[in-house]
Amino acid sequence: MARTQAVEHSSDEHPPPAEPVGTGRVAAPHAYGPGPDDGPPLHEAGAVDADVVGAVLRTARTILGERVREASELDPSFSDDLARRVADFTLEGGKRIRPRLVWWGMRACGGGDAASVEAALRMGVALELIQTCALVHDDVMDRSRLRRGRPAVHIGLATRAGLSPDSEWGASYGTSAAVLVGDLALAWADDTVADTTPATSAHHRIRSIWRAMRTEMVAGQYLDLHGQVTGGGSAARAIRTACLKSALYSVERPLAIGAALAGADERTTAALRSAARAAGIAFQLRDDLLGVFGDPAQTGKPSGDDIREGKPTYLLAVARTRAAAADDKKALAVLDGAVGNGELTREGLTAVRGVFDATGARAHVERNADRLGEHAARRLAETVDVRAQGGRQLLELLRTISAAPVHSAPAPASAPAASGARGGAPPTGPPQGS
């Protein structure tokens, strides 16, 4: 693969909306099970409404505590090195976007009985575990050294074993053990879903959604990986990758789970999926822009690594298409020399940014993200009551997911207007179906 330098991943999603989070706390490492002042029983929907994150963490501590105890009975080193690492990683970071989508999707559709409350919280934990799997494996594939400001799992495992993560043996051991950490997180996620017992009709729908989501997540990651090796692809393929990697797995499927728990009908569910998919694709388009134009001091991750790694983003595909249509050989040469170049300098990145601005690719992507975000909000407002608490919170969450990043430099006023006809295959609406 065409990347040579290790990178840092310290942020998973945009910041969450202003939702009351009460006293939701992240557990200290190796501290599992309910705390002494964890609040009212979790079967009360109103109590969870006031502190969704706290309720998910309380549920997670209980579930993960059981899993770690089971692991300790098998072998102490397995429990300490792998099982506890899965638990701590899951509890210590992230914005809990997926559990929030499950919860507010359920509440916006009228759910809230005791069985649905418990099932929603457990499904939220399962989604956090599958996210742990995805992030640990992603850091291995990208050879990232940091995650959330701390050593990535494969780095920490090598160090814990007394090995240098930069040595051949240390790198091999760390990455191999990290793959097992991700596998264990996925197994625990599946176990959590299997042990969750909502109403019979919801159970079948949730299992179907879960099965689809796991495969979509892997497919999206593979398309991203394949695009780096083959040098990218069309704008349409970039959108497809974004849909699989971000929109479906991170937004649409969690929201569909919440709707299923509430017993929402097919029409309502389809409308919610449309809104969620639009928001998810908008998020990925914003994230692609942030990866090139973001300020590392504000975003917490290096700028330009998507270019150095050769990621087949929609932004890049549009720029190539527009440069080719204009027969701009200089712009194409800049992109050819930069994409997949792990040694790309600051000056080289500045030149790439200039191409994105001059071709109008940046402005085109920003407008598409704006339009998708507007579609998500409009579709949701047509589907549920956004004046009620559940609908209002869900609307704010989708707006946050699709919102413009605050740490991206503004586009120059001289950037040319971008027409969709030259953009390669811009999304004219959120892709439908599954």
From TrEMBL:
Residues 1-45, 407-434 are annotated as: Disordered. Keywords: Isoprene biosynthesis, Magnesium, Metal-binding, Transferase. Its EC number is 2.5.1.1, 2.5.1.10, 2.5.1.29. One of its GO terms (molecular function) is dimethylallyltranstransferase activity. Pfam families: polyprenyl_synt. Its cofactor is Mg(2+). Residues 407-420 have a biased composition (Low complexity). InterPro entries: Isoprenoid_synthase_dom_sf (IPR008949), Polyprenyl_synt (IPR000092), Polyprenyl_synt_CS (IPR033749). Belongs to the FPP/GGPP synthase family. This is Geranylgeranyl diphosphate synthase type I.
